[in-house]
Design goal:
The protein starts with a helix and ends in a 12-residue tail after the last helix. Among the domains are: about 5-40; about 80-130, no CATH class. The protein is built from 4 helices and 2 strands; from the N terminus they run αααββα. The protein is mainly α. The longest helix has 13 residues, at about 5-15. The chain has helices spanning about 5-15, 20-30, 30-40, 120-125, and strands spanning about 95, 105.
Length: about 140
């Protein structure tokens, strides 16, 4: 719908009478947001917010508690424990939980083209039967 001169006149009259934007919109056949936008473009006086806000709370000086300075320094962070990281041609099969101190990798020699040794390749890969092809 477009803003006709009649609608604009009704908007001005109802706005000045103190009707809400949604009530004006219902009466003239426009949305609440269309009414608010047109009122803004026409430069009509701003309306008070319908949201009731409580008065701002005063800041009480002298009631702010600052953290007491520590007399002893904070303990140093725990040392980073070195991990045995397999590199090169050694098996990357994880053994243990990564969060445990005894976590490690297998480190046996790998099968060519694979990241694991023969034992762990047998666990990690399923051998195809003769005549099977890879699924597309």
């Amino acid at each position: 719908m477009s803003w006709t001169e009649e609608r604009v006149d009704d908007l001005r009259r109802l706005w000045d009478a103190g009707y809400s934007a949604s009530a004006i919109g219902k009466q003239i056949g426009m949305s609440k947001n269309a009414v608010i936008g047109k009122a803004h473009r026409l430069g009509l006086r701003a309306r008070p917010s319908p949201i009731r806000r409580s008065a701002p709370k005063p800041i009480l000086a002298g009631r702010i508690r600052l953290e007491e300075p520590r007399s002893e320094p904070a303990p140093p962070p725990p040392p980073v424990r070195p991990r045995r990281i397999a590199r090169g041609a050694t098996c990357l099969w994880p053994i243990g939980d990564p969060g445990d101190d005894d976590f490690r990798f297998c480190n046996e020699p790998v099968v060519e083209g694979k990241p694991y040794c023969a034992t762990h390749c047998a666990k990690a890969y399923i051998a195809r039967r003769s005549g099977e092809t890879a699924a597309a």
